[in-house]
Amino acid sequence: MTLSQKIFLVTCRPLLNILFSWKAEGRENVPLTGPLILVANHVHVLDPIFLAFSLSRWITFVAKEELFRSLFLRLWLRWAGSLPLQRDGKVREKQRILESARKVLEEGLILGMFPEGGRSHDGKLRRGKPGSAVIASKRDVPLLPVGIAGTDKIHGISWLWKRPRIVVKIGKPFKLPPTNNKISKSQMQLLTTQLMREIAALLPPECQGAYEKHED
Predict the structure, then answer these.
(1) Please, what are the averages of pLDDT over each run of 10 residues along the chain (216 residues)?
(2) In angstroms, rounded to a whole number, what is the distance separating the alpha carbons of residues 40 and 166?
(3) What distance in Å separates the CA atoms of residue 101 and residue 132, rounded to the nearest whole number?
(4) What pTM does this model have?
(5) Cα separation of 120 and 106, whole Å?
(6) How far apart are CA 24 and CA 110, in angstroms?
(7) Of the residues 82, 100, 167, 177, which has the maximum number of CB atoms within 10 A of its CB?
């Protein structure tokens, strides 16, 4: 974490506390050192902000490439160290993001990913995409599941005086079976399902969506 990033977290935390009634649970589950892939559900554009303030370590997020087209956002994302991802990219693009992820993890940092591949517009967990699971399995790196509840209430302008309640619930790190070989589609699906169920377990039942406990 750079000095400017530390200053940002210290100076902006009071503002976050004023605007929102929020809390982070399970901070003790975050390893103090070592590579880690944080995986969380994604409902609102502010989700990365709440995650950043919930951990004591900086998170290097994977962000969709479209965000880098805006000058302001590009400067912000580059300052934050975010990695651009072209969704539905070709093989070369997938190899590029895998290489970028490898460098982040080899430096012992936290890589932040939203396995759904985009925001859920109804607040319910969507089917996950295999990218996070593939990286974790190939790099044999622990995953840190996080469930964010309440950010779906941030819309319009009424939230400014309602101070919506946000809960960031951090689960315990876990590992997927490691592999050095090519992963089949069926293996990808199994690994992704395992990952997504860890996130779902940290969410209220009404937010578990595609991974409700009664589903197979």
Answers:
(1) 87 89 95 95 93 94 79 81 73 75 92 92 90 90 96 81 89 90 85 95 92 64
(2) 14
(3) 10
(4) 0.89
(5) 31
(6) 17
(7) 82
